[in-house]
Specification:
This protein is of the alpha+beta class. The protein has two domains: about 10-130 and about 135-155, Alpha-Beta Complex (Nucleoside Triphosphate Pyrophosphohydrolase); about 160-295, Nucleoside Triphosphate Pyrophosphohydrolase (Alpha-Beta Complex), CATH 3.90.79.10. The chain has helices spanning about 20-25, 100-105, 110-125, 200-215, 265-270, 285-295, and strands at about 30-35, 40, 65-70, 75-80, 95-100, 140, 145-150, 155, 160-170, 175-180, 190-195, 220-230, 235-245, 255-265. Strands 9, 10, 11, 12, 13 and 14 form a six-stranded mixed beta sheet that branches. A five-stranded mixed beta sheet has the order 3-4-1-2-5. A three-stranded antiparallel beta sheet has the order 6-7-8, with no helix packed on it. It starts with 19 loop residues before the first helix and ends with a helix.
């Protein structure tokens, strides 16, 4: 589940350069990703093979600016965080504002990385204009990657909240345990997930969340991969686990309304979109964990 492709260059070496945003906005090769209310523009209307719309800095009006990095050609990519009610990007009529869930897992390579970074940073720029320590106003530093309070001088950075997500299998590896969240009305089943609490390790979080949500104790646990998930600022850390006792499962009745063991055949049918239940979309690490388990025995 781990990719070996070189990651998008976030150009951290440029962040301390005085006036770097203004300099890059003036360079003809610089492109801009506009974010508005957790959505971006897609180039054209082909949602089967979409691409992020990159515009010139001259095409963007009022916005909060930040540096995302350098693209594969070495040219700067900037973020323009727009107010929700402002449409200040000149675009063709067939281009649409879409969010991460709308796009699923259809963006390729570099675009997928830029999308997640732009949504996460854009959300922080929009939601955290004041100092959480004293409530004072702040100024942006480090090309949009930090804020300094104008009252108390405290420096603040974009937060990332760790959360675990776990695919639980039976001892023989032939069945997968999934839960239905109350927010989904019982129509979709997924892996179990929850945020890490203060002073808690990831492993302890996994054991606690599984016990709370499904009543399951775990015989073994292994880390698989991670996924940034900007809703609003999570880092999902994916695990596979084996249940100690398959018969002790029970939903908590509040967050999780049902838990079920699924056979490999049932999971394969659901992945094909034919039932018996809905599974998470292609953009989520939950689906990647389910697919990984399914393909091991296919």
């Amino acid at each position: 589940m781990t990719t070996m492709r070189a990651p998008f260059d976030r150009a951290a070496d440029l962040r301390t350069e005085v006036g770097v945003i203004d300099r890059l906005r003036a360079e003809p090769a610089t492109t801009v990703i506009a974010v508005r209310d957790g959505r971006v523009r897609i180039d054209g209307d082909d949602l089967e093979a979409p691409a992020l719309l990159r515009v010139s800095a001259d095409d963007v009006g009022e916005a909060t600016w930040a540096l995302l990095g350098r693209d594969a050609a070495g040219d700067a990519v900037l973020l323009a965080a727009l107010a929700p009610e402002v449409d200040s990007v000149d675009t063709a009529p067939d281009e649409t504002w879409l969010g991460l869930r709308d796009l699923g897992g259809r963006l390729g390579g570099e675009d997928a990385e830029i999308l997640i970074e732009a949504l996460a940073l854009g959300g922080w720029l929009r939601d955290a204009p004041f100092c959480p320590r004293c409530g004072g106003g702040t100024e942006l530093l480090q090309a949009g990657w930090s804020r300094r309070c104008l009252v108390c001088g405290r420096e603040h950075f974009p937060r990332t909240d760790p959360a675990v997500i776990v695919a639980v299998e039976s001892a023989d590896g032939e069945r997968l345990l999934l839960g239905a969240n109350a927010n989904w009305g019982g129509r979709m089943y997924s892996c179990f997930a929850g945020f890490t609490e203060a002073g808690e390790s990831l492993e302890a979080t996994v054991h606690r969340e599984l016990a709370e949500e499904s009543g399951v104790r775990l015989a073994s646990l292994r880390y698989m991969s991670s996924q940034p998930w900007p809703f609003p600022r999570s880092l999902m850390l994916g695990f596979r686990a084996v249940a100690l006792d398959e018969d002790e499962v029970r939903p908590d009745g509040e967050e999780i309304v049902d838990v079920r063991w699924f056979t490999r055949e049932e999971i394969g049918t659901a992945l094909a979109g034919d039932g018996p239940v809905g599974l998470p979309g292609a953009a989520s690490i939950a689906r990647a964990l389910i697919v990984s388990w399914f393909e091991e025995g296919a």
